[in-house]
Amino acid sequence: MQTRQEQLMVILAQSQGWLKGRDLAALLGVSDRTIRSDMNKLKQDYPGAIQTHHHKGYRLVAQALEDPNQPSPLGLPQSQEERLHYILKLLLADSQPQTLKELSQDLYVSPQTLTMDLHQVGQLVGAYPDLDLEHDAKGWQLKGPEFQKRRLYRELLTSELQGDFLNLDKVLAIYEEFDMVWVAHYFQGLLQQADYQIRPASLPILLLHVGIAVQRMLAGQFLYHRQDLPPLAPKEEALARKFLQGVGKQYKCRIPASEAYSIGRLLEAYQAMHELVSQVIYQGHPLDLTHLVEDLGQHLQDLVGLDFLSDADFKDRFHLHLQGLIERLHYQVELPNLFLQDMKRQYPLVFDLAVTVSTWLGARLGVVLSEAEIGLIAVHIGSSYSRLERPWKARAILLAPQHYPLMQSSIDRLKASFGHRLEILAQYDYVSEAQLLHQSVDLVISFMPLAQTLGLPTLQVSTFFNEEDELALVSLLNQVEQRQTAIQLALQLGDFLESRFFYQDLQASSPEQVLTLMAQDLAQAGYVTPDFLPSVLEREALSSTDFDYALAIPHPLQAHSHQSVLAIANLASPIEWGRYPVKLVILLALKDSDWAFTQVFFKWLGQCLAHPRQLKSLLAASSRDDFLAAIVGEFPHPSR
User: Fold this and answer.
1) Mean pLDDT on 362-371
2) Are 86 and 77 in contact (CB under 8 A)?
3) pLDDT of 441-455, one tens digit each?
4) What is the longest distance spanned by two Cα atoms in the chain?
5) Which of 29, 120, 177, 549 is deepest in the core (most CB within 10 A)?
């Protein structure tokens, strides 16, 4: 499958509906005829996966594959986490039993894989009282009270929208060379048998490192053959040896007993993080890891204004990561590309932070870290960032009777459930649109029927504020937040984007040509230093800044700007950038003092990349003003 055809499958899958050929052509910068040709090829490769309509265009559907070994189309649920969410939502939405055959046809995976997935679903469901995943000759079905099903769906939706950065499901789904689900179950079973306690919050990171070690061993890369290593504690050594014996038996390979050292050390480290090794020998000299973590935390605080060192888990986990990194550098062991593409797409700000930190860390260690190492560093930064970042809260007016005890319990429940996302400014029995004009309000929540529109996003909820009301409020808050981000970006972007740096139908044949032209114009205007372009090219060499929707966001590793400015190029024809062809280039040239804008920009970018339709109007913009209008227009005002 060609790269452009991969892009089409991703776009169709994420659009979850019909897309016209001309819209796809505009999005990818190709002709309608090229889209038709690509679609014909995809329909040949994946019979039944593409549905065509004369007026509506194309959409991705799921039907039976004649060849069960044929790879699934890109964009369909492929990781285990994505499949688990898909299966759970299907079970919650459909009261009819789901058969393995039907699920296999829908998800393009084997019945054996689905059996493992359903086992995981059963474990997730088991956390909810009175819910049970039942299986009989008719298929699989979720049984239990409706309110428990609603609770499960609400928490599933909330988890998806809040984007749990690193959880167990993600770890289980990232290893393609072996069955990490089995490895994790076996590993955890041994820990339980030995009554060996690991904090639940540390389990995903521990399993991530265990998976790295297993993948290395199954590839025949063995490290521990020296006799001068400090001995393991007896309990950890016994657990590690038994674990590797089980892995070797499962995969019919011989793993040297000495390799138990790597697993044993991980267990010791996560069992007693307060006893981390402060100094190691690196390139023949002592290296103080404690001081290195402190310096790195200070570097992060200088970059983003968040005190990562106040997060004890971050300090301990990154300390452990550095121990493993030093070991990999010493033995020249390459990591697989864990999380790389998902990280770049879903968390562009976090990934870019990891690139900056990895450059700083590489300079301290005298090496250039690989993209795979950058991806793993992003996991640690992102896990802490999501805890430290102060979330934006929507400002709301509450319409409800002031002296009604039954209503008050519902209001208290609303505040308890949404206090992290919602600030209640005031509660009224009645409010008019004129009153709201004098207050800075984002939405209105009413427990009473409204006889008039209020000119703001408004949600009417029931007296008892039930599960349906909670779901509706989650959805409205996300719409409000998306629009708020877009407006905030457009207002700030207006200060940084000048008409002379908006290039329409720019002719270019390579990324270097585009970047050189844009950077030279910025330099001639006195906005950037001579070091700007080399720093941008160096950043591209570390990890390409292209995304899978014909978009690239190049920027320097360090600030080399006298004045913050953006340059935007809408290319005449797409050019090969990194992995994907690119049509729209947004070059960032920002001062360190404008980091707050960078946070807003990448937050907006993450929202855009989650919705393929929202980039079409950006690609169609022919001027600076069109571009600014398109940013806000792609996130319309929520329903009133």
Assistant:
1) 92
2) yes
3) 888 999 988 766 677
4) 81
5) 549
Across the chain, mean pLDDT equals: 79
Task: Note the pLDDT tens digit of each residue in 319-329.
Answer: 888 988 888 88
Q: Under 8 Å CB-to-CB from 451, ≥6 apart: which residues?
A: none
Backbone angles phi, psi at 458, to 5 degrees: -130, 135
User: Taking the mean position of all CA atoms in its chain, how far away is CA 534?
Assistant: 29
- CA–CA separation, 519 vs 524, rounded Å? 9
* CA proximity to 357, closest of 388, 338, 379: 379
* 639 three-class SS: coil
The SS3 call for residue 401 is: coil
Tokens in use for 606? 């993450």
Q: Which of the residue ranges 63-72, 185-194, 290-299, 403-412 would you say has the lowest mean pLDDT? A: 63-72
Indicate the range of 217-226, 287-296, 459-468 predicted with least confidence.
Answer: 217-226
pLDDT exceeds 60 at position 572 = yes
Query: Which contacts (CB < 8 Å, 24+ apart) does range 605-608 have?
Result: 605/348, 605/349, 605/553, 606/346, 606/347, 606/348, 606/349, 607/482, 607/485, 607/486, 607/635, 608/549, 608/634
Distance CA 514, CA 263 (A): 48
Q: Determine the average pLDDT of the residues in 96-119.
A: 76
Q: Read out DSSP for 559-597?
A: --BSS-EEEEEEEEEEEE-SSSEEEEEEEEE--GGGHHH
- The answer to whether the beta carbons of residues 196 and 239 sit under 8 Å apart is yes
Q: Report phi then psi at 639, rounded to 5.
A: -55, 140
Q: What is the pLDDT of residue 63?
A: 39
Q: pLDDT of 593-620, one tens digit each?
A: 776 677 778 777 776 766 666 677 788 8
pTM, rounded to two decimals: 0.54
Q: How many CB atoms lie within 10 A of CB 485?
A: 21
Burial annotation 24-44 (CB, 10 A radius, 16+ → b, else e): bbbbbbbeeeebeebbeebee
Cα separation of 321 and 379, whole Å? 11
Alpha-carbon span 583 to 590, nearest angstrom: 22
Q: Which pair of structure tokens corresponds to residue 206?
A: 């521990």
pLDDT the model gives residue 186: 92
The SS3 assignment for 322 reads helix
Closest to 431 (Cα-Cα) out of 418, 415, 448, 419: 448
Indicate the Cα dihedral angle 463, 466, 468, 469, nearest 10°: 50
pLDDT value at residue 204: 77
Q: Are 139 and 98 in contact (CB under 8 A)?
A: yes
Q: Is the pLDDT of residue 178 over 70?
A: yes
* SS3 category, 312: helix
For the chain, the first-to-last Cα distance in angstroms comes to 44
